[in-house]
Amino acid sequence: xxxxxxxxxxxxxxxxxxxxxxxxxxxxxxxxxxxxxxxxxxxxxxxxxxxxxxxxxxxxxxxxxxxxxxxxxxxxxxxxxxxxxxxxxxxxxxxxxxxxxxxxxxxxxxxxxxxxxxxxxxxxxxxxxxxxxxxxxxxxxxxxxxxxxxxxxxxxxxxxxxxxxxxxxxxxxxxxxxxxxxxxxxxxxxxxxxxxxxxxxxxxxxxxxxxxxxxxxxxxxxxxxxxxxxxxxxxxxxxxxxxxxxxxxxxxxxxxxxxxxxxxxxxxxxxxxxxxxxxxxxxxxxxxxxxxxxxxxxxxxxxxxxxxxxxxxxxxxxxxxxxxxxxxxxxxxxxxxxxxxxxxxxxxxxxxxxxxxxxxxxxxxxxxxxxxxxxx
Length: 376
Hints:
Blueprint: H1 2-38, H2 56-72, E1 90-94, E2 97-101, E3 110-115, E4 118-119, H3 120-127, H4 136-142, H5 144-151, E5 163-168, E6 171-176, H6 179-188, H7 201-231, E7 247-257, E8 264-270, E9 277-278, H8 280-300, H9 305-346, H10 351-375
Antiparallel strand pairs: 1-2, 2-3, 3-4, 3-5, 5-6, 7-8, 8-9
Helix pairs in contact: 3-5
């Protein structure tokens, strides 16, 4: 009986233990879900595919990416429209200065100090606040009203034919602003409107000198090319590399490869060390072709200096041959006379020679005997 009473208590204890386990598991799951939700989306873009579920974190990441792209692609805002009016007939930009013609399109250009209280640097800064950065001069010349609006100046005119204060190096003038001046200036401001300050004669002289040098060089090269194509180019006297350097014999190199036959082991190389090598057989074949081409050229051009030099060398060779022949004939005659004299000295004496020698010996003996008697 007691055992049966204890069974419901055990069952209740087991139920509470399971509930505790389930509660702990739910808490851990909630913590994991919160941790995952707090991290950025690193699914490789799978959430952006159609049909995939997206949460608030995906939207936040998308907005951040859009803001970064806008910052990277951010450009100056577009400029407001101009009223197409100007206070100058002509305008020219020279370095960091502006020269203008105010009352007519003829005459000298004067340096602009300020217009409506804005000087050159203020106008330039205001024109760079909108539109492409490289067109700030265009905005000053063609859209002066917009430049005043961007710079925050209220001195620009409200309607046509009103005046604005213009300060130049010659003084202060009240210039009329009109569309007629604008139309005239639009035709020439890009070419400096023929202002003397923009002509720069010294630089023009330098440019003309450079142009003359370039044209002279071009003319010389053109004439040289035309003359070579008409008369032909004289072939070289010696074997040359592709750059025109002479090929000479060098120490045999086992590791070098011939530039013609691609065989290893070369004995000839470029004199200027331009990495051009030739095999011995290739050098001989090329030398033979070079000599043949030069010979054909000299035959077709008898007035060539090398042709005259060759004739002179041939005449010198003939004179040397004649001199050598004369020397040989003289040496042969001398050797012949020498041999004849030697032959005469070796021959036995004749009877006449013997009698002459005996008489001479007798006379010598009698002279000796007389000299002995005198001494006694």
